[in-house]
Design a protein that fits this description.
By secondary structure, the protein is mainly alpha-helical. It contains 11 helices and 2 strands, in the order αααββαααααααα. 64% of the residues lie in helices and 2% in strands. A two-stranded antiparallel sheet has the order 1-2. The longest helix is centred in the C-terminal third of the chain and has 24 residues, at 197-220.
């Protein structure tokens, strides 16, 4: 595979949604919206809720872990340098595009490059289950897991499951945990008052589907 040198990290483009999220978080950090609320009890309740909310922190950890892993995956696609130059199509010589060179040109230090490759060594299903959990691991912990090649069979095989079943269980548990969190965020009457008759009908239909599914599920647990 012919790999072009990566651009310097300071000039690399970031996804538009990533940039927008950074701006929104910086704005939250700069402006304290609760500071001037006349209702001090309401402000206190809001501060208390913010102090217990770790979702942004955990989401940021997941985004960073995926970015570091992807760096490692891309670096693993590039052969390690064997010394010397490569002949280009015109017969001349061009610098060898090595893993070390690509990492340096992307702005990664040798330690960062090594760490990203180790994170990329963690089997996909194990990596995903950990970062999607309620307590995402640190990058150091993930890198430690990928220090040596994993000779064990995939986690789903160790548990005697199919890959499809393993992933279904993992993602559904995350989805239902998110649903349970949502039930604690809203007052039932506010949901009713904030829905049109058509939207209420849609809610009834969805709730019936949930009831049918959970009834079947709970009998098998």
């Amino acid at each position: 595979m012919n790999h072009a040198l990566l651009p310097n990290t300071h000039n690399a483009n970031l996804p538009a949604k990533y940039e927008a999220a950074k701006i929104a978080i910086m704005e939250c950090n700069r402006i304290d919206e609760c500071k001037d609320w006349s209702d001090k009890a309401q402000a206190l309740a809001s501060y208390a809720r913010q102090s217990e909310d770790t979702e942004m922190e955990k989401t940021a950890m997941r985004i960073r872990a995926r970015a570091i892993r992807r760096c490692g995956e891309l670096l693993k696609e590039i052969d390690k340098a064997q010394g010397g130059d490569r002949r280009n199509q015109e017969g001349g010589k061009s610098p060898l595009v090595s893993r070390k060179n690509a990492a340096a040109d992307a702005g990664l230090s040798p330690d960062q490059a090594k760490q990203s490759i180790r994170v990329a060594n963690v089997p996909d299903e194990i990596f995903t289950e950990q970062i999607e959990s309620e307590t995402p691991p640190t990058i150091t912990s993930l890198a430690q897991q990928g220090t040596t090649p994993n000779k064990k069979p995939p986690m789903f095989e160790q548990l005697g499951m199919t890959k499809e079943a393993f992933q279904a269980g993992m993602y559904f548990r995350g989805d239902i945990e998110d649903f349970c969190k949502a039930t604690k965020k809203y007052e039932i009457q506010d949901i009713i008052d904030g829905s049109t008759p058509e939207q209420r009908d849609r809610l009834r239909t969805l709730i019936k589907q949930i009831d049918t599914f959970t009834d079947k599920l709970i009998t098998k647990l």
